């Protein structure tokens, strides 16, 4: 499943709203391999946001329907699990310009 136009537009608007997140989106675009999960540490490292704001960003990404946030529990950290068929690299590459 490729990103829908609505999802692409939602991510684009999120990028405008949270300019710090552009580092994360750039990282996703430059990844060599597709990943099914992205940890809060990766979000934190590449966005430059603290842990609480990184978790908030993850929830906002999940609200677009391209991923779900899962709690790690048992000493593991929280992570974004990308929706079936969504290549997280598309999130970085295809959402940096508006559709119109």
Summarize the SSE layout with pairings:
Elements: H1 5-17, H2 22-30, E1 37-39, H3 40-47, H4 51-63, E2 67-70, E3 79-82, H5 88-93
Antiparallel strand pairs: 1-3, 2-3
Helix pairs in contact: 2-3, 3-4
- Mean pLDDT reading: 87
Main structural class:
mainly alpha
Q: How big is the Rg? A: 12 Å
Number of strands: 3
Order of helices and strands: HHEHHEEH
Distance between the termini: 22 Å
- Figure out the total of helices: 5
Q: What proportion strand?
A: 5-15%
Largest sheet: 3 strands, antiparallel
Percent helix: 40-55%
Strand arrangement within the widest β-sheet reads: 1-3-2
Report the uncertain regions: none
Rough outline = globular
Question: What would you note in describing this structure?
Answer:
With 100 residues, the protein is mostly helical. Helix content is 49%, strand content 11%. It has helices spanning 5-17, 22-30, 40-47, 51-63, 88-93, and strands at residues 37-39, 67-70, 79-82. A three-stranded antiparallel beta sheet has the order 1-3-2. A hairpin with an 8-residue loop joins strand 2 (67-70) and strand 3 (79-82). Helix 2 packs across helix 3 (40-47) and helix 3 crosses helix 4. The longest helix has 13 residues, at 5-17. The chain starts with a helix and ends in a 7-residue tail after the last helix. 27% of the residues are buried.
